[in-house]
Design goal:
Layout (H helix, E strand, L loop, with lengths): L18 H22 L5 H4 L3 E2 L2 H7 L2 H24 L8 H21 L3 H4 L1 H15 L17 H15 L7 H22 L1 H7 L2 H10 L4 E3 L5 E3 L15 H17 L3 H18 L1 H38 L14 H19 L3 H4 L25 H30 L3 H7 L1 H19 L1
Helix pairs in contact: 1-17, 1-19, 4-5, 4-7, 4-9, 5-11, 5-15, 8-11, 8-12, 9-10, 12-14, 12-15, 13-14, 14-18, 14-19, 15-17, 17-18, 17-19
């Protein structure tokens, strides 16, 4: 179970300045940023900046070539098969099996990093899409063309993706043994079955855009990247974060982003003494003495309820801020969907702050696992005896990086929200007034994030 122990710093009592100074300092940065935006940012800039400059045609042709897609898809699908086989038939210890670290480190944390740096790489790396494309190609070549029998209901929007992402969060944060290889094998097979059947029923593109949870997740994060698609579909270079200025409101989008934010927040909160000792342990102590298995089930149910509550709290706080903003400026419509893109940098900030030290430590294990993915005692490449450097990052370095990630993410959210307000409201003063509630929300998110990391 060592894989999924606490990801955060685990205590910052040795910092050179009191912790409360970080709270006030971070809040002050947000307030100063808000004032600067109000004084200097008078017209919308980000939507135009998101159009970017087209990449050289030769580079775009190479990146989007059929050969790249085929090779990347084949490698990705082979990795899916390998990880599933290791989870299903390899050693049952998570410390000896490739699958847990691949799923929770390489896939869950590595792919977001690639998406933020290089754009929506999941479009060519998705093993589920690659397999579906291969089947469709073979069917067409064999004269068996296939039309999706059902039209995807527009009212569902991204709700299927939000539900499936929440299910993954339940596995990671609520299931009593999330790093159990056999449990992961079952989860991978179940998700694969759902994905391929849904693609068969509604079409590959429709399901990828709405219901394939990881495609939606990586796609949202990819809007932060300095590379993306322009209006004409060409690949462009653009300023980071500007792609979020063009996020369009759709059913289920707020729920999806709330899961992104709330799951990481609950992961941090579940490691505090308030949850782990004062609440969970005290409530479960009598049950553990009577039945350890029942205690596992009860612990999972408590964690599931806590996770759902945290996701709901994130969503309700945002909805309340938007209603206050609408009332403050006399806006008759619903602002909830207008500013949802400003929450995505905060979700990324939470992921970086909470997991990056965990990622740096655990990703090193890929080197020995390359020689022995199943835990059978193999040494295919002579690396099985290598051990990672767990002290690669100093605790203070981790803490300062966490603070920087939270502050930068929330400032980016403020900038996106202000730019959208300038688009919506004709008066700069009105745009600034509409953002008072958003500023308060950002301060709360920032201080709460710092508090969770410090616990």
């Amino acid at each position: 179970m060592s894989l999924l122990l606490a990801h955060g710093l685990g205590g910052v009592t040795d910092l050179p300045v009191p912790l409360w100074l970080f709270y006030y300092g971070a809040a002050l940065v947000l307030v100063v940023s808000f004032v600067a935006l109000w004084a200097l940012w008078k017209r919308p800039l980000l939507a135009r900046a998101s159009r970017g400059r087209p990449l050289p045609e030769g580079l775009e042709d190479a990146v989007r070539s059929r050969a790249v897609r085929i090779v990347a898809g084949a490698v990705s699908f082979a990795l899916l098969v390998l990880v599933t086989a290791a989870a299903a038939a390899g050693d049952t210890s998570p410390d000896e099996n490739l699958a847990p670290r691949f799923v929770f480190v390489v896939f869950w944390l590595g792919l977001p990093a690639l998406s933020v740096l290089f754009g929506n790489v999941w479009t060519v790396l998705s093993p589920w899409r690659a397999a579906a494309d291969a089947v469709a190609w073979a069917s067409e070549r064999g004269g068996f063309g296939w039309e999706a029998p059902f039209a995807y209901p527009a009212r569902l929007g991204m709700w299927p993706g939000a539900i499936l992402l929440f299910a993954f969060a339940l596995l990671e944060l609520a299931y009593w043994d999330p790093s159990d290889p056999r449990a992961l094998a079952g989860a991978i097979l179940l998700y694969s079955t759902i994905t391929w059947l849904a693609m068969l029923a509604f079409g590959r593109d429709e399901w990828v855009e709405n219901g394939e949870a990881f495609a939606v997740y990586f796609g949202l994060l990819a809007r932060i990247a300095p590379f993306g698609e322009g209006d004409d579909g060409r690949l462009v270079a653009r300023w980071p974060f500007t792609g979020l200025a063009r996020v369009k409101s759709r059913p289920g989008l707020l729920a999806f982003v709330a899961v992104m934010l709330g799951s990481v927040a609950f992961d941090g909160f579940s490691q505090t003494d308030y949850w782990a000792v004062d609440f969970r342990a005290r409530l479960m102590r009598p049950v553990i003495q009577e039945s350890p298995r029942l205690a596992d089930v009860l612990g999972s149910l408590l964690a599931a309820a806590g996770l759902a509550a945290m996701v709901a709290l994130v969503a309700l706080a945002y909805i309340a801020a938007m209603r206050i903003a609408a009332r403050a400026v006399g806006y008759d419509g619903d602002l909830t969907g207008k500013f949802i893109g400003s929450l995505v940098p905060i979700a990324l900030a939470y992921v970086v702050a909470h997991y990056f030290s965990f990622f740096v430590r655990e990703v090193q294990w890929l080197y020995p696992f390359a020689s022995d993915p199943f835990g059978f005692g193999w040494d295919l490449f002579g690396t099985s005896d290598w051990r990672p450097d767990i002290g690669l990052l100093a605790p203070k370095t981790i803490w300062y990086a966490q603070v920087a990630a939270l502050v930068i993410g929330h400032v980016a959210g403020l900038v996106l929200a202000h730019d959208k307000a300038v688009v919506l409201f004709e008066s700069p003063r009105k745009a600034a007034i509409s953002q008072y509630a958003m500023l308060a929300l950002m301060v709360v998110y920032t201080v709460a994030g710092l508090w969770l990391l410090s616990r």
